[in-house]
Amino acid sequence: MHNDTKRANEPTRARKSLQATAVASAYQKEWFNGLRARVEAGEDFGYLNADVPMEILRAMDIPFVVNQWWAAICAAKRMTPKYYSLLNAAGYRDDLCSYCATALAESLDPDDKISGPWGGLPSPTIAITRLTCDCQSKIFELFAKNHGAEMYVMENTQPRKVPPNWWELAEDRWEELYDKDRLDLAVEDLKALIAYLENKTGKMFDINKLVEVMNLINEQEMWYKKIRDLIAKTSPAPVTVVDTINAVMQAQWQRGTKWAVEHAKSLYEEIKSFVDTGRSAVPDEKLRLMWLGRGLWHDFAFYQNFEEKYGAAFVWSMYLAMGADAYIRNNVEADPLRALAARYIGMEDFLHMPPWNANWFLKEARHNNIDGVVYMVPENCMQAVEGSYFIKKTLEDAGIPVLLFKADPVDSRKWNRDTMTGLVEDFIETRIIMGGKK
Amino acid sequence: MGIREYARNSKAFQRLLHHYNNREEAARLFRQKGGKVVGQLGADVPDELIMAAGMFPVRVYADRDSKLTEADKYLEFSFDPVIRAQFEKIVDGTYSDIVDYLAISNSTDVIIRTYLYLKEIRRQEPEKPVPPLTFIDWLFTRRMLYQVRNEFTIDLFRQTLEEWSGRKISDSDIEAAAKICNEDRTALREISELRKARKPRISGSEALVIIGSSMFMDKAEHAELTRQVAREAKDWPEIDAKRIFLTGSAQEYTDLYEMIEKYGAVVVGEDHDWGDRYYERDYNTSYSPIRAIVDRYMLRSFSSKKAFVSQRVQALDEAVNASKADAVVFYVNMYEESASWDYPSQKKSLENRGIATKAFVKMAYPITRNEWLEDNLKKFIDSLKE
Ligand code: SF4
Ligand code: SF4
Fold first, then answer.
1. The domain containing residue B67 runs over which residues?
2. B130 burial level (CB within 10 Å; 0-12, 13-18, 19+)
3. Probe ligand 1: pick from A100, A137, A352, A379, max atoms within 8 Å of CB?
4. Quick check: B341 and A379 CB within 8 A?
5. Which residues in chain B have Cβ-Cβ distances shorter than 8 Å to A131?
6. Which end of chain A is less enclosed by CB atoms within 10 A, N or C?
7. Cis ω on the peptide bond leading into residue B131 (within 30° of 0)?
8. How many folded domains does chain A comprise?
9. What is the pLDDT of residues B66-120, one digit of tens each?
10. Is residue B82 domain-resident?
11. What's the whole-model pTM score?
12. Least CB-CB distance to B120: which of A185, A382, A390?
């Protein structure tokens, strides 16, 4: 079905079925062109790492791009091999931090305006990252220097408290979720960021704008929660991760805008209509799989490889589920900065720390009726190291088999689809089917 | 040259070398006498506070040839080989009869993860012999906001130590301990002067032993022995060799130094945690104790893990100047990635100033596994002599 147009040596392109994905793709390009125009007209332009509380820039109407989103665009445009060779030529290693270093590599490209994705990245004036790993600030500093931007960093703290059920506390009871002093510090960090941005851009921060942004995000994420729940309870599933990852992520980077709310709503409506009309992604769905790890931006078709042969559908990835469980903060009016702090400091804990992550994956696996988990541990990222032993153990102790393998999410040079396909097929056959779950 | 006969013949140096080679001996003895020992994982666990609590600080280090059964089971590939070997010893029970507690500092990313994993092992698999542990969540970005936060963090550590030791730690306890640590650092600086002199009297291998032994023995005794060595070394023969500065992965053993010093070069300085960085910056006795601890550990020279590229470039330039090095060797273990981002800028800056550089990256551990290394080092040193 999806490989009828495949040419030799060219990986099959993933089939795209959702209108919402097409709409988002079109929108982000249009939005990016608008952003470029603003930057060219002389506005300050922020380049942010994904873990930076972008809500502040949104509320201040400072145009910005998120590093991981841009890396995904570069990967989708298959620019990464070229970029890594540029890194190499400049004396850097080309086998490190691929995900985070894509834009740094791009900044070394003298032809970026011609050959870069969408006309290349306009030069930022501000580059902001958090110190959630040892390399990020170094990469951001080098990137900022190449663009003539200022670098700003925010710190990161480790939890002492470890609530077993963060997803139950996150929306309303964040004071119970975190150590008080961590929240206090994060609020101060936000204030310092605001002061810096005011100084740099000449714009004044308005707390009511932040409330508005936070509420728009709540609304958007509420739609993701509905989508997550709908997919969880519908078998065969109306859509797979191939449909949802891009549709959700593209809009997540636009979070805090009316467009993003509308988009999330339309995504829900589209998927709901599939359910109502009995349309499913893999009509012959026999197995439901969970994908752990970052998205395979350069080879989405991989996820579909197991549908025909085994009726195995990848129905879960963290992208949609994080939207559903990790973002909503109710009653932000009471203390908007603290509510925001209670969101951004948590992402690291939720995603990258055992047992926060392991417990949540298990809860989600059960909620989504998952038969097996395919878990990709990136080889060269310390931040994404998240206790794979504990995750695997938690899931397998609960009777859910896990296939764990190493791969690099962005660097297609290292990706060998045939090997990976073989691994997953073997896993499905020996661990899931013969393992006797279905 | 490495460790010369003059050093080996010195009674004081012999004592230091003994503790360097028998790293657990003093801790065991302290424990046998009923004292409590705190293992330190990471370079930023304040000795002063542990000593003030009446406990004995001892550094966790890697065994070079241990089998990594536990590490392979629990850790991902991207944990560097040194931390893997350290983790192994903690989880396989090697430390069970050496330390009572483990204090872990946020000195690099991988240690944070290691802490989380150890904590989970204790929670989920309590039969494993992992000692009770605590984490010191240092923030190294130099802003007042974070400095104040660090004071909070260090105060928490003080409270933990009070619980562990079962006694109150008074300000004067801390000051007394700090005085000993400062004296030890002063003594180590005397060694440093002899090592960095135009004509060095102390080799890099000797210095590494003198510095490293401090992590395993009574600090007052160490200070005394170090002063003694410094007095004697004034009469040791001058070393005439190419001067190398070493940056990159911490060297817990002298192997690499001895390899370099075998071929007519001497390591006159380094910026890793088992070398010069260990005794840099004193506890400021005019500050209140918690402030002084934060000041000492937060503001000493930048570590390769917790600093921006520009900071590292400047720090290395300055350290190389101070040690009057002819060349810089970058030596980075596999999976210790962050320094690799500093390297191209550092190299450029050094070479602009006429300092030769040589990089060894993605190195296997222990160094003997890199068969080609010795040859390449020799070639590099020979090239300096031309
Ligand atoms: S270690 Fe991971 S998170 Fe950090 S810069 Fe590298 S790829 Fe990014
Ligand atoms: S959701 Fe995960 S992969 Fe995406 S930016 Fe955040 S940490 Fe990176």
1. 23-165
2. buried
3. A100
4. no
5. 139, 141, 306
6. N
7. no
8. 1
9. 899 999 999 987 889 999 999 999 999 999 999 999 999 999 989 999 999 999 9
10. yes
11. 0.94
12. A390
